[in-house]
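tool_call predict_complex ligand=magnesium ion
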Amino acid sequence: MAEIIDIASEHGWALARGCQVLEDAEPVAIPTETVYGLAADATNPRAITRIYEVKSRPRFNPLIAHMSDLAMAERYAVFDPLSRKLAEAFWPGPLTLILPLTADSTIHPLCTAGLDTVGVRIPQGFAAELIAAFGRPLAAPSANTSGRVSPTEAEHVQGDLGDKIQLILDGGPAGVGVESTIIKIDGDKVRLLRPGGLAVSAIEACLGRDVMRHDNAAQAAIEAPGMLASHYAPKAGVKLDRLHVEPGEILINFGNQPIAGLDDAIAIFDLSPRASLSEAAANLFAIMKMADELPARAIAFAPIPHHDLGEAINDRIARAAAPRPEARYED
Ligand code: TXA
Ligand code: MG
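tool_result ok
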Protein backbone atom coordinates (compact mmCIF):
# COMPACT_ATOMS: atom_id res chain seq x y z
CA MET A 1 0.00 0.00 0.00
CA ALA A 2 1.14 3.53 -0.69
CA GLU A 3 1.94 5.96 2.10
CA ILE A 4 -0.91 8.48 2.45
CA ILE A 5 -0.13 11.91 3.91
CA ASP A 6 -3.03 14.11 4.97
CA ILE A 7 -2.22 17.59 3.70
CA ALA A 8 -4.50 19.43 6.13
CA SER A 9 -2.72 18.05 9.21
CA GLU A 10 0.80 17.49 7.78
CA HIS A 11 1.22 20.22 5.21
CA GLY A 12 5.00 20.73 5.55
CA TRP A 13 5.72 17.01 5.55
CA ALA A 14 3.46 16.49 2.50
CA LEU A 15 5.49 19.09 0.58
CA ALA A 16 8.87 17.73 1.71
CA ARG A 17 8.06 14.06 1.14
CA GLY A 18 6.38 14.89 -2.19
CA CYS A 19 9.53 16.63 -3.43
CA GLN A 20 11.70 13.75 -2.25
CA VAL A 21 9.75 11.13 -4.22
CA LEU A 22 9.56 13.40 -7.29
CA GLU A 23 13.36 13.89 -7.13
CA ASP A 24 13.68 10.09 -7.26
CA ALA A 25 11.83 10.22 -10.62
CA GLU A 26 8.87 8.39 -9.09
CA PRO A 27 5.25 9.47 -9.60
CA VAL A 28 3.22 10.92 -6.70
CA ALA A 29 -0.57 11.05 -6.54
CA ILE A 30 -1.62 14.63 -5.86
CA PRO A 31 -4.94 16.36 -5.32
CA THR A 32 -6.08 18.96 -7.83
CA GLU A 33 -9.42 20.76 -7.96
CA THR A 34 -10.50 18.60 -10.93
CA VAL A 35 -9.37 15.01 -10.18
CA TYR A 36 -6.36 13.40 -8.48
CA GLY A 37 -3.31 13.46 -10.74
CA LEU A 38 -0.42 11.01 -11.06
CA ALA A 39 2.38 13.57 -11.13
CA ALA A 40 6.00 13.24 -12.19
CA ASP A 41 8.83 15.53 -13.29
CA ALA A 42 7.85 16.77 -16.78
CA THR A 43 11.51 17.30 -17.69
CA ASN A 44 12.66 13.76 -16.84
CA PRO A 45 11.98 10.92 -19.32
CA ARG A 46 12.44 8.22 -16.68
CA ALA A 47 9.83 9.85 -14.46
CA ILE A 48 7.34 10.22 -17.32
CA THR A 49 7.82 6.62 -18.37
CA ARG A 50 6.89 5.58 -14.82
CA ILE A 51 3.52 7.32 -15.21
CA TYR A 52 2.72 5.14 -18.21
CA GLU A 53 3.90 1.98 -16.45
CA VAL A 54 1.81 2.68 -13.36
CA LYS A 55 -1.32 3.50 -15.39
CA SER A 56 -0.78 0.56 -17.78
CA ARG A 57 -1.58 3.11 -20.44
CA PRO A 58 -1.29 1.49 -23.84
CA ARG A 59 0.73 4.18 -25.51
CA PHE A 60 2.13 7.64 -25.10
CA ASN A 61 -0.34 10.50 -25.33
CA PRO A 62 0.66 14.05 -24.60
CA LEU A 63 0.33 14.90 -20.92
CA ILE A 64 -0.59 18.22 -19.36
CA ALA A 65 2.37 20.06 -17.80
CA HIS A 66 1.21 21.59 -14.53
CA MET A 67 2.88 24.85 -13.47
CA SER A 68 3.01 26.77 -10.20
CA ASP A 69 2.35 30.22 -11.67
CA LEU A 70 2.38 32.26 -14.86
CA ALA A 71 6.09 33.08 -14.50
CA MET A 72 6.95 29.38 -14.57
CA ALA A 73 4.56 28.74 -17.46
CA GLU A 74 6.22 31.48 -19.52
CA ARG A 75 9.56 29.72 -19.26
CA TYR A 76 8.14 26.71 -21.10
CA ALA A 77 5.32 28.00 -23.33
CA VAL A 78 4.60 31.00 -25.56
CA PHE A 79 1.42 32.95 -24.81
CA ASP A 80 -0.57 34.72 -27.53
CA PRO A 81 -2.82 37.59 -26.33
CA LEU A 82 -6.04 35.51 -26.15
CA SER A 83 -4.37 32.66 -24.24
CA ARG A 84 -2.87 35.20 -21.85
CA LYS A 85 -6.28 36.74 -21.24
CA LEU A 86 -7.71 33.30 -20.39
CA ALA A 87 -4.72 32.49 -18.20
CA GLU A 88 -5.15 35.72 -16.25
CA ALA A 89 -8.89 35.22 -15.87
CA PHE A 90 -9.03 31.53 -14.98
CA TRP A 91 -5.70 30.37 -13.51
CA PRO A 92 -5.28 28.81 -11.10
CA GLY A 93 -8.23 26.69 -12.19
CA PRO A 94 -9.70 23.91 -14.32
CA LEU A 95 -8.42 25.22 -17.66
CA THR A 96 -5.65 23.75 -19.87
CA LEU A 97 -4.19 25.82 -22.70
CA ILE A 98 -2.38 24.22 -25.64
CA LEU A 99 0.56 26.51 -26.41
CA PRO A 100 3.75 26.45 -28.52
CA LEU A 101 6.88 25.39 -26.63
CA THR A 102 9.53 28.03 -26.06
CA ALA A 103 12.75 27.49 -27.99
CA ASP A 104 14.63 26.51 -24.84
CA SER A 105 11.82 24.63 -23.11
CA THR A 106 13.09 21.64 -21.12
CA ILE A 107 9.72 19.85 -21.07
CA HIS A 108 10.65 16.37 -22.27
CA PRO A 109 9.23 15.16 -25.63
CA LEU A 110 7.69 12.19 -23.79
CA CYS A 111 5.43 14.71 -22.06
CA THR A 112 4.37 16.38 -25.31
CA ALA A 113 4.44 13.13 -27.37
CA GLY A 114 6.93 14.90 -29.62
CA LEU A 115 4.54 17.74 -30.54
CA ASP A 116 5.80 21.32 -30.72
CA THR A 117 3.01 22.36 -28.37
CA VAL A 118 2.42 21.68 -24.69
CA GLY A 119 -0.76 21.51 -22.63
CA VAL A 120 -0.30 23.89 -19.69
CA ARG A 121 -2.38 24.24 -16.57
CA ILE A 122 -1.98 25.96 -13.21
CA PRO A 123 -3.99 23.97 -10.66
CA GLN A 124 -5.55 25.38 -7.51
CA GLY A 125 -4.28 24.85 -4.00
CA PHE A 126 -1.71 22.35 -2.77
CA ALA A 127 -0.67 21.11 -6.23
CA ALA A 128 0.63 24.56 -7.19
CA GLU A 129 2.53 24.80 -3.89
CA LEU A 130 4.15 21.43 -4.50
CA ILE A 131 5.21 22.46 -8.01
CA ALA A 132 6.69 25.71 -6.67
CA ALA A 133 8.61 23.77 -4.01
CA PHE A 134 9.82 21.20 -6.55
CA GLY A 135 10.80 23.95 -8.98
CA ARG A 136 9.89 22.17 -12.21
CA PRO A 137 6.59 21.46 -14.01
CA LEU A 138 4.76 18.24 -13.27
CA ALA A 139 3.25 16.04 -15.96
CA ALA A 140 0.03 14.58 -14.58
CA PRO A 141 -2.77 12.53 -16.09
CA SER A 142 -5.55 11.30 -13.81
CA ALA A 143 -4.30 8.86 -11.15
CA ASN A 144 -6.15 5.74 -12.30
CA THR A 145 -5.40 2.57 -14.22
CA SER A 146 -6.14 3.04 -17.89
CA GLY A 147 -9.81 2.31 -18.55
CA ARG A 148 -11.05 3.15 -15.05
CA VAL A 149 -12.93 6.12 -13.69
CA SER A 150 -10.82 9.14 -12.70
CA PRO A 151 -10.24 9.37 -8.93
CA THR A 152 -11.72 12.25 -6.95
CA GLU A 153 -10.61 10.99 -3.51
CA ALA A 154 -7.29 9.69 -2.15
CA GLU A 155 -8.98 6.41 -1.21
CA HIS A 156 -9.87 5.80 -4.87
CA VAL A 157 -6.19 6.12 -5.77
CA GLN A 158 -5.14 3.79 -2.94
CA GLY A 159 -7.63 1.13 -4.06
CA ASP A 160 -6.49 1.28 -7.66
CA LEU A 161 -2.76 2.14 -7.69
CA GLY A 162 -1.79 1.66 -4.03
CA ASP A 163 0.53 -1.27 -4.72
CA LYS A 164 2.29 0.49 -7.62
CA ILE A 165 3.15 3.90 -6.20
CA GLN A 166 4.93 5.08 -3.06
CA LEU A 167 3.00 8.17 -2.07
CA ILE A 168 -0.51 9.64 -2.14
CA LEU A 169 -1.02 13.19 -0.91
CA ASP A 170 -4.55 13.46 0.46
CA GLY A 171 -6.25 16.81 -0.03
CA GLY A 172 -9.81 15.55 0.50
CA PRO A 173 -12.46 15.21 -2.21
CA ALA A 174 -11.79 17.14 -5.45
CA GLY A 175 -14.09 20.15 -5.61
CA VAL A 176 -14.73 20.28 -9.36
CA GLY A 177 -14.82 16.56 -10.10
CA VAL A 178 -14.29 16.49 -13.88
CA GLU A 179 -11.04 17.10 -15.74
CA SER A 180 -9.98 20.53 -16.99
CA THR A 181 -11.42 22.21 -20.08
CA ILE A 182 -8.82 22.14 -22.88
CA ILE A 183 -8.60 25.16 -25.19
CA LYS A 184 -6.35 25.86 -28.15
CA ILE A 185 -6.10 29.28 -29.76
CA ASP A 186 -5.57 29.05 -33.51
CA GLY A 187 -5.02 32.54 -34.95
CA ASP A 188 -8.24 34.32 -34.05
CA LYS A 189 -10.15 31.05 -33.46
CA VAL A 190 -10.77 29.64 -30.00
CA ARG A 191 -11.13 25.87 -30.13
CA LEU A 192 -12.51 23.52 -27.52
CA LEU A 193 -10.48 20.29 -27.46
CA ARG A 194 -12.16 18.87 -24.35
CA PRO A 195 -15.14 20.14 -22.37
CA GLY A 196 -14.32 20.13 -18.66
CA GLY A 197 -14.54 21.85 -15.32
CA LEU A 198 -14.59 25.38 -16.70
CA ALA A 199 -17.84 26.14 -18.56
CA VAL A 200 -17.46 27.21 -22.19
CA SER A 201 -19.92 30.03 -21.50
CA ALA A 202 -17.41 31.55 -19.04
CA ILE A 203 -14.66 31.42 -21.67
CA GLU A 204 -16.91 33.03 -24.27
CA ALA A 205 -17.90 35.77 -21.84
CA CYS A 206 -14.25 36.46 -21.02
CA LEU A 207 -13.08 36.70 -24.64
CA GLY A 208 -16.24 38.14 -26.15
CA ARG A 209 -16.16 35.58 -28.95
CA ASP A 210 -17.51 32.10 -29.71
CA VAL A 211 -15.65 28.92 -28.85
CA MET A 212 -15.57 26.40 -31.70
CA ARG A 213 -16.43 22.79 -30.98
CA HIS A 214 -15.38 19.73 -32.94
CA ASP A 215 -17.86 18.20 -35.33
CA ASN A 216 -16.88 14.65 -34.50
CA ALA A 217 -14.74 12.47 -32.25
CA ALA A 218 -12.22 11.62 -34.95
CA GLN A 219 -11.37 15.27 -35.41
CA ALA A 220 -11.09 15.67 -31.64
CA ALA A 221 -8.77 12.64 -31.45
CA ILE A 222 -6.42 14.19 -33.97
CA GLU A 223 -6.37 17.52 -32.15
CA ALA A 224 -6.02 16.08 -28.65
CA PRO A 225 -4.66 12.59 -29.13
CA GLY A 226 -5.96 11.35 -25.78
CA MET A 227 -9.53 12.10 -26.77
CA LEU A 228 -10.69 8.97 -28.59
CA ALA A 229 -14.39 8.32 -28.13
CA SER A 230 -14.12 5.65 -25.46
CA HIS A 231 -12.71 6.68 -22.11
CA TYR A 232 -13.38 4.72 -18.97
CA ALA A 233 -15.35 1.54 -19.04
CA PRO A 234 -17.75 0.48 -16.29
CA LYS A 235 -18.28 -3.29 -16.28
CA ALA A 236 -22.02 -2.89 -16.87
CA GLY A 237 -23.26 -1.19 -20.03
CA VAL A 238 -24.24 2.46 -19.77
CA LYS A 239 -27.54 3.89 -21.02
CA LEU A 240 -28.18 7.59 -21.42
CA ASP A 241 -31.19 9.92 -21.21
CA ARG A 242 -33.46 7.38 -19.50
CA LEU A 243 -36.71 8.25 -17.76
CA HIS A 244 -37.29 4.59 -16.90
CA VAL A 245 -35.12 1.89 -15.39
CA GLU A 246 -35.31 -1.87 -16.10
CA PRO A 247 -35.18 -4.61 -13.45
CA GLY A 248 -31.58 -5.25 -12.35
CA GLU A 249 -30.33 -1.87 -13.49
CA ILE A 250 -28.87 0.98 -11.50
CA LEU A 251 -30.36 4.44 -11.92
CA ILE A 252 -28.22 7.56 -11.75
CA ASN A 253 -30.64 10.45 -11.58
CA PHE A 254 -30.17 14.21 -11.73
CA GLY A 255 -32.43 16.71 -9.98
CA ASN A 256 -34.77 14.07 -8.57
CA GLN A 257 -36.60 13.57 -11.88
CA PRO A 258 -39.59 11.19 -11.84
CA ILE A 259 -38.39 7.83 -13.19
CA ALA A 260 -40.49 4.76 -14.04
CA GLY A 261 -39.56 1.30 -12.72
CA LEU A 262 -37.68 2.45 -9.62
CA ASP A 263 -39.02 -0.43 -7.49
CA ASP A 264 -37.03 -2.97 -9.50
CA ALA A 265 -33.78 -0.97 -9.72
CA ILE A 266 -30.94 -2.48 -7.71
CA ALA A 267 -29.65 0.92 -6.63
CA ILE A 268 -30.63 4.55 -7.08
CA PHE A 269 -28.24 7.50 -6.97
CA ASP A 270 -28.78 11.18 -7.66
CA LEU A 271 -25.85 13.30 -8.89
CA SER A 272 -27.53 16.38 -7.44
CA PRO A 273 -31.07 16.19 -6.01
CA ARG A 274 -31.20 20.01 -6.13
CA ALA A 275 -30.24 19.96 -9.83
CA SER A 276 -26.91 21.77 -9.47
CA LEU A 277 -24.57 20.95 -12.37
CA SER A 278 -21.44 21.80 -10.38
CA GLU A 279 -22.55 19.52 -7.55
CA ALA A 280 -23.29 16.80 -10.13
CA ALA A 281 -19.81 17.16 -11.66
CA ALA A 282 -18.20 16.88 -8.22
CA ASN A 283 -20.18 13.69 -7.48
CA LEU A 284 -20.01 12.07 -10.93
CA PHE A 285 -16.92 9.87 -10.72
CA ALA A 286 -17.45 8.74 -7.12
CA ILE A 287 -21.03 7.69 -7.95
CA MET A 288 -19.92 5.96 -11.16
CA LYS A 289 -17.34 4.07 -9.15
CA MET A 290 -19.92 2.94 -6.58
CA ALA A 291 -22.28 1.91 -9.36
CA ASP A 292 -19.49 0.00 -11.08
CA GLU A 293 -18.88 -2.05 -7.93
CA LEU A 294 -22.47 -3.36 -7.87
CA PRO A 295 -23.56 -6.36 -9.95
CA ALA A 296 -25.85 -4.47 -12.30
CA ARG A 297 -27.15 -5.39 -15.75
CA ALA A 298 -26.72 -1.78 -16.82
CA ILE A 299 -26.25 1.72 -15.46
CA ALA A 300 -29.01 4.05 -16.64
CA PHE A 301 -28.47 7.81 -16.50
CA ALA A 302 -31.43 10.19 -16.41
CA PRO A 303 -31.22 13.19 -18.76
CA ILE A 304 -28.72 15.86 -17.66
CA PRO A 305 -28.87 19.38 -19.10
CA HIS A 306 -26.09 20.16 -21.58
CA HIS A 307 -25.29 23.73 -20.61
CA ASP A 308 -22.33 24.86 -18.46
CA LEU A 309 -20.74 21.93 -16.58
CA GLY A 310 -23.43 19.71 -18.11
CA GLU A 311 -21.36 19.70 -21.29
CA ALA A 312 -18.44 17.97 -19.56
CA ILE A 313 -20.73 15.62 -17.61
CA ASN A 314 -22.55 14.53 -20.78
CA ASP A 315 -19.22 14.14 -22.59
CA ARG A 316 -17.84 11.81 -19.90
CA ILE A 317 -20.95 9.63 -19.64
CA ALA A 318 -21.24 9.42 -23.44
CA ARG A 319 -17.66 8.13 -23.50
CA ALA A 320 -18.51 5.59 -20.80
CA ALA A 321 -21.45 4.45 -22.98
CA ALA A 322 -19.50 4.34 -26.25
CA PRO A 323 -18.68 1.04 -27.93
CA ARG A 324 -15.14 0.05 -27.05
CA PRO A 325 -12.63 -0.39 -29.80
CA GLU A 326 -9.89 -2.98 -29.32
CA ALA A 327 -7.28 -0.36 -28.61
CA ARG A 328 -8.60 2.00 -26.01
CA TYR A 329 -6.57 5.07 -25.22
CA GLU A 330 -7.48 6.30 -21.83
CA ASP A 331 -6.45 9.59 -20.27
O1 TXA B 1 -7.97 18.12 -14.95
C1 TXA B 1 -7.07 17.65 -15.64
O2 TXA B 1 -6.76 18.13 -16.73
C2 TXA B 1 -6.33 16.42 -15.07
C3 TXA B 1 -5.66 16.85 -13.78
C4 TXA B 1 -4.79 15.76 -13.17
O3 TXA B 1 -4.92 18.03 -14.00
N1 TXA B 1 -5.41 15.92 -16.02
C5 TXA B 1 -5.79 15.27 -17.15
O4 TXA B 1 -4.74 14.85 -17.95
O5 TXA B 1 -6.96 15.06 -17.46
P1 TXA B 1 -4.86 13.76 -19.07
O6 TXA B 1 -3.48 13.31 -19.38
O7 TXA B 1 -5.82 12.72 -18.61
O8 TXA B 1 -5.48 14.50 -20.30
C6 TXA B 1 -4.67 15.27 -21.13
C7 TXA B 1 -5.39 15.61 -22.39
C8 TXA B 1 -5.36 14.49 -23.40
O9 TXA B 1 -6.62 14.38 -24.02
C9 TXA B 1 -4.31 14.95 -24.38
O10 TXA B 1 -4.52 14.45 -25.66
C10 TXA B 1 -4.45 16.46 -24.31
O11 TXA B 1 -4.73 16.72 -22.98
N2 TXA B 1 -3.19 17.15 -24.63
C11 TXA B 1 -2.10 17.29 -23.85
N3 TXA B 1 -1.13 17.96 -24.49
C12 TXA B 1 -1.60 18.25 -25.71
C13 TXA B 1 -1.07 18.93 -26.85
N4 TXA B 1 0.16 19.42 -26.88
N5 TXA B 1 -1.86 19.04 -27.93
C14 TXA B 1 -3.11 18.54 -27.92
N6 TXA B 1 -3.66 17.90 -26.88
C15 TXA B 1 -2.92 17.75 -25.79
MG1 MG C 1 -8.17 10.27 -17.03
